Amino acid sequence: MKSRRDRLREATVQEITQTARRILVEQGPEAVTLRAIAREMGMTAPALYRYFGSHQELLRHVVGDIFADLTAALKAGLHEVPENDMNGKFLAAARTFRRWAFTHRPEYGLLFGAPMPGVGDQREQADFAEENARRFGMTFLTLFLELWGKCPFDVLPDEDIEPRLREQLRRYRDLGLAGADLPLGVIQVFLQCWVRLQGAVSLEVFGHLDFALDDPEPMFELMLTELAPVLGLEYEPPASYARDETGGGEP
User: Fold this and answer.
1) Three-state SS for 40?
2) pTM score, two decimals?
3) Would you state the pLDDT for residue 129?
4) Cβ-count burial 151-183 (b if 16+ within 10 Å, e if not)
């Protein structure tokens, strides 16, 4: 059982984190300073150092909190789908990720804009940010491995993968995250899918499709129609894309 002192400390850390996140959303990342957070909380900036050793440590904690929120949203979306519906799970994960990104643009920018120093590194002892980043990544990887286990799709033999890429894939597999016996072609497909998914979402969130599209959702759904067959799945359009009797799309 935690002591009262520990509970108070945890509550203060959580309040600091939420205050920093609110400033991030309302004013942007440059405004997330120890002085600004202290002012919001009625504290002095030096008092914050009893909870976080540096501004960088605080930002990493905020990153971890956001990753935890995103992971919870993904798991909630997957929970809505029947256990053996792999089509539904694939589409739910992709669409939930995109929806979360659009409703949390500043947070998404902090996670997937300029990389935070150290996030993604393989450390002997992961900190809060790194641990939650890994949990987020494992949510997608676990779903992908479940798909491969239940309905294996076509992949390149190891010897047919471009040599430089093959060695990098082997190094990633050797980390033990994806299974030591997994064909390298499976890992290649996983990364190809992630590049397509995260790249499409980032282009939208950061406004890099605004020059041509004011509603990029159909383009995102088109990307899913291309990814689904790669994974041996069938694309199922959302209800808003229902077709009329002539085969034409409804707005």
Assistant:
1) helix
2) 0.86
3) 85
4) eeeebeeeeebeeeebebbeebbeeebbeeebb
Which residue, 117, 99, 119, is CA-closest to 108?
A: 99
Three-state secondary structure call for residue 185: helix
Q: Which tokens in the block code for residue 179? A: 């299974």
In the chain, % helix, strand, coil (3-state, to 5) comes to: 65, 0, 35
Q: Phi first, then psi: what are they for 12, rounded to 5°?
A: -70, -40
Cβ atoms of residues 230 and 153 within 8 Å = yes
Tokens read off for 140: 């997608």
Tokens of 128: 């809060």
Residue 96's pLDDT band, with cuts at 50, 70 and 90, is very high
Residue 67 backbone dihedrals phi, psi, to 5 degrees: -60, -40
- Residue recorded with tokens 């919001």: 40
| Residue 219, Cβ density class (10 Å: 0-12 exposed, 13-18 middle, ≥19 buried) | middle
The CATH number that domain 1-53 falls under is 1.10.10
User: DSSP secondary-structure letter at 115?
Assistant: P
Protein fold of 60-241: Tetracycline Repressor; domain 2 (1.10.357)
Contact 141, 133 (CB under 8 A): no
| Domain spans in the chain, listed from the N-terminal domain onward | 1-53, 60-241
Higher pLDDT, 77 or 181: 77
How confident is the model over 7-39, as pLDDT tens digits?
888 899 999 999 998 998 898 888 888 889 999
